[in-house]
Amino acid sequence: MLELWNSWYDTLASVEALATVIVIVLVAAGAITLAESRRR
Known about the structure:
This protein has one helix and no strands. Helices cover about 95% and strands about 0% of the residues. By secondary structure, it is mainly α. The model has no long low-confidence stretch (mean pLDDT about 90). It is rod-shaped.
């Protein structure tokens, strides 16, 4: 039971890390787009 919980927690942690990376990339892309549109 504990092993199952640990593997589930590891999966959740990796999914959370992946989601964090995606959010950071989206925010960076949005900031770059804003900067580009302001420059024009």
